[in-house]
Amino acid sequence: MLICDDLTLQRGSETFHFSLTLQPGELLVLVGPSGAGKSTLLDLLAGFATPQQGTLSWQGESLLALSPAQRPFTTLFQSDNLFDHLTVAQNIGLGLSPTLRLSQAQRQQVQEAAARMGLGDRLASLPPQLSGGQQQRVALARCLVRQRPLLLLDEPFSALDPALRQELLREIHRLTRVEGIGVLLISHHPQEARDVADRLALLEQGRIVFCGAPSALDAPEHAALRRYLGHDAD
């Protein structure tokens, strides 16, 4: 289990306090208004920011002294995921080696990851020759080939049309079950939490103020959820 306990960061006049858990094979969707601290949380988890206090551990071992490359995370962002001059196979292969000097076994891993994403026949294609959904599938395949147990998704599908976004979210949901990956997905769409999340977390003013079943969105009783959804507090 990933355990984040009172991970605290002071940035200017803002103070962030984060506490959460994430199990292998679990999909946790994190929502919240702009500026609430969602990207700050990812920076702390991935090691791009250093907390002033708190603990962060995976399988009982602290992660705080580890560099980003040593931590058990792979991160997928909304954009800038692919290199247009490299083929699909090469873009996926970067997850294994930045020099793209791959062994036969690693090339097989690339082919298998592409096949799982429905891209087995596009290995020689360049990203501009692919649809937006296919491009994000390539980026996701590169994450999978790294074989890290935890996946951080920073709104990677928000630029896609709703049908494509739902298709890729269902794929993420399937992967959490089949691969046993723990997934933390940042989203601006509460419906995504309803559709695929095992748990929903709401971030407000630098703190996680609610964590529970996504069904809480349907008849929100928690005051913070009501504010987020635009319901009257009373």
Automatic annotation (TrEMBL):
Keyword Phosphoprotein: no
UniProtKB keywords: ATP-binding, Cell inner membrane, Cell membrane, Membrane, Nucleotide-binding, Translocase, Transport
Entry-linked InterPro entries: AAA+_ATPase (IPR003593), ABC_SmlMolc_Importer (IPR050093), ABC_transporter-like_ATP-bd (IPR003439), ABC_transporter-like_CS (IPR017871), P-loop_NTPase (IPR027417), Thiamine_ABC_ThiQ (IPR005968)
Keyword ATP-binding tagged: yes
SMART domains per record: AAA
Superkingdom as given in the UniProt entry: Bacteria
GO molecular function, one term: ATP binding
Transmembrane segments: none
Residues in ABC transporter domain copies: 2-230
Family matches, as PANTHER family: SPERMIDINE/PUTRESCINE IMPORT ATP-BINDING PROTEIN POTA, THIAMINE IMPORT ATP-BINDING PROTEIN THIQ
Alphabetical list of NCBIfam families matching this protein: thiQ
Name of the molecule in the record: Thiamine ABC transporter ATP-binding protein
UniProt source species: Pseudaeromonas sharmana
Gene: thiQ
